[in-house]
Every structure is written in C-alpha cells, then in structure tokens.
Write a structure and sequence with these properties.
Blueprint (H helix, E strand, L loop, with lengths): L2 H12 L5 H13 L4 H16 L8 H22 L12 H9 L4 H4 L1 H5 L15 H41 L2 H10 L5 E7 L3 E8 L4 E7 L8 E9 L2 E8 L5 E5 L9 E8 L14 E4 L4
Antiparallel strand pairs: 1-2, 2-3, 3-6, 4-5, 4-7, 7-8
C-alpha cells in the first residue's frame, strides 16, 4: 500500500466510514508505516474542526409545511377524514395509552372494541371505528417534533459541511510534506541546517526530535530525465539507508524523509531510476549532502 492509498483510508477512518475489511487494512498499514501517523492526526483534526464549527440553525419557515405533509402522509390523513362527528367523547386519560398502542402497530380495531359491541347483529360484519381525532393529533405532534429536530440537525450539518469543504480543499491542495514542514517549524525543538548546492542551489534539512520527522527542502535542483527520480538517503556510519524518492518542480522540492533520522546522520540525494534504486543502494554520486550536525 502506498501513502496515497493510506491517506484515503485514513480519511474514511476519521469519518467512521470504513468497512470492516478496509478498517483492518488501515490498522495493518499504520502498524507497518508508523511514519504515516501524521496523516491520521491531520484527518482527525480536520473532522474535529468540522464538528466544532456546527451551530444550531433554524429551518426556513416554508420547510415546516412540506416536512409535516411528508410525515403525515396519506395514512395519517385517512383517519382524520373518517372520524365520525357524533362519536362518543373519549376520556383524555386514555389518549396517551392509545398513542403508544398506535405507535407499536396496534390495529384500530383493538382501540374500537367498545364500539364493536354495539354493532348490529346479523350477517353484516361490524365496521372498525377510526382512531379518535385527539390520538391522531398526538401522534402528529410527536412526529412533527422528531422531524423538526432531524431537519435542524440536517441543516446544521450542511452548514458545517459547507465550511468544512473549504478547509479540507485547502488542506488537500497543500502537499503533505509542506504541511509537515510547518508543523516541524512550530515545535520548540525544531532544528535546521542549510548547505550550498552547486553554484546557485541551496539545500536545507528541517527536523524535530519530538515529532520524529524530518523534511528536505531544496532550490536549484538540476533537471533530470523523465525516467529518473531523486532519492533521499540517511548516511549513517558510512552506510546509506533509503529514505524515499521525490521529484522537483522548476528546480524546487520539499520532501519528507521516510524513516527515523538519528543524531549525526547526513542526508544525501542521488539521481536514480524511476521508483528508486532497485537494490536499495545508491547507483550515482550524491548531488548534495546535508549533515544534521555542524562542527
């Protein structure tokens, strides 16, 4: 799994939208690549900021009538039309019980048993009495309240998403390495070293021991063929350790070092075939080397 695929899983994890299989892939990748923890933190911070930005929003006035008609539907209107004007008055104390019975799916016949006993004898079957008007109104009031709360929550969520989309878009437009560089520079233990590269170029190393991250920044990088790439190396006790590949745009580059930098490491850059050195060892001489300690 590459970093881009993990970033997609990380966003889904932050939103709680991963399937069980994808969640396992996400957890396995995080264990295998602890250096991707910063992607997780950024996604969680973004979702948290999105949630904190949501404020209660009242629905537009014209929404109430549309929402009420959807909640009531045809089933709620039919009992109102069939209510008999001369039906015997109901005891108000029974309205709540009838409401619960209707909400559990009880039939109107179970509420109309006293009326059924008065039905004429013979071959004509008794007609079930319709629910009383006050029962229907009680259910409608309860459903309207629930629907209103749901509507307010939905509108508030849309307002939050409207804000969040802009924030997320800005984050996506900023390369991860640039975001990481800003975080490193904000740390109290941030350190950096700058080295001249060629006649007009310049390369610098930025790192934070508390974050455990390092970023390489360069200007004046040489042009290379399309089938070639730049590769970073930790040079530790004269042993090069691959630290990721990167490309330059208009001679400029900002790249995160993959792996853990140790005190005393020198960061070197070589030109390798696309995808990096096949055997994990440099195949060319470094075009620049930046020591993490100065004498």
């Amino acid at each position: 799994m590459n970093e881009q695929e993990f970033a997609a899983l990380s966003a889904g994890h932050a939103l709680g939208a991963l399937s069980p299989d994808d969640e396992r892939r996400y957890q396995d990748a995080l264990v295998a690549h602890p250096e991707w923890q910063e992607i997780v933190r950024l996604d969680l911070d973004t979702v948290g900021a999105l949630g904190d930005s949501v404020t209660p929003v009242a629905p537009p006035l014209n929404v109430r009538s549309r929402l009420l008609s959807q909640i009531r539907g045809g089933a709620a209107e039919a009992p109102e039309a069939s209510v008999v004007d001369d039906a015997p008055p109901r005891d108000p104390s029974t309205v709540a019980d009838d409401t619960v019975a209707l909400d559990r799916g009880a039939s109107s016949a179970s509420l109309a048993e006293p009326a059924a006993s008065d039905a004429p004898s013979g071959d004509v079957p008794p007609v079930d009495a319709a629910p009383p008007t006050e029962v229907v109104q009680a259910i409608q009031r309860r459903n309207w309240t629930r629907g209103l709360f749901a509507l307010v929550a939905s509108v508030a969520l849309l307002v939050g998403i409207g804000w969040g989309v802009g924030a997320i878009s800005d984050s996506l437009r900023t390369p991860p390495a640039v975001q990481l560089l800003a975080q490193i520079e904000s740390q109290p233990d941030a350190q950096s070293v700058t080295t001249q590269m060629g006649e007009d170029g310049q390369a610098s190393l930025h790192w934070s021991e508390s974050l455990g991250e390092a970023v390489f920044v360069a200007k004046g990088m040489p042009e290379i063929a399309d089938d070639r790439t730049f590769e970073l190396w930790f040079v530790r006790d004269d042993t090069p350790i691959a630290a990721g590949t990167f490309d330059a745009s208009d001679g400029e580059a900002t790249a995160q070092l993959v792996g853990s930098m140790k005190p005393g490491d020198t960061i070197a850059v070589t030109v390798e075939q696309r995808g990096g050195s096949p055997d994990g060892k440099p195949t060319t001489d470094p075009i620049v080397a930046v020591p993490s300690e100065t004498s």
